[in-house]
Write a structure and sequence with these properties.
Number of domains: 1
Helix content: 25-40%
Largest sheet: 8 strands, mixed
Radius of gyration: 18 Å
Distance between the termini: 49 Å
Length: 219
Amino acid sequence: MNLEEYKKRAATQEDWSPGWDAIDRVFEELYPNQEPAHFGTDLHARAWLGGDQYIDGYSIYQSPNGYKHMVTYGMTDLYVNDQSFGGKWSGWGYEMTIKLAEENVEDCLWAVSMLSNLASYTYTQKKPFEPFQYVAGNGGSIHIGVDSAITALLVIDDPELTGIDSVHGRVDFLQVVGITQSELELLIEDPSNVVLLSERMKKDNPYFITDMKRTKSYI
């Protein structure tokens, strides 16, 4: 698609959201014939309309491997924008995912607020996340109100998703996975330990599922 074709489609299809559609196609390939649970941010709250919400929506899929797979819509350029066409990166260049060991969609919704906070940090501080970074919390459970040994996050490339080249530029998928306080302290002491930690986690958790009931430490 060239710029002329892009503009023509935008003019004839009023509700076209090429960036959003690109994310949908990635997940449709991973989860064919599945309709995800979707949660949209209130329109008036969206940052591009003057609000404080930088993520416009979240979709939650059921993996055949036994977990819920959530993805954000908002770290990349979702809507028609001539200035974004043909860029090197779409927006920040990634959307965020998380995999949760939960049976019910409702039990995953706490992660919406967490991902929203991560997006807000990136947009307001101009600091995107990268694979093998860690996100320290305050020492308490990342699920506020629920007692858990999981107190921080590790950022990795989602092992099930391949980045794509959209009409607005490159889109990767960064997954956050919950880690314990002792695992976090290991990374703070020496960030190079991230490779060791991720390799140990992968042995019995190849999809890097966040299980808020986990007590086992991988250090």
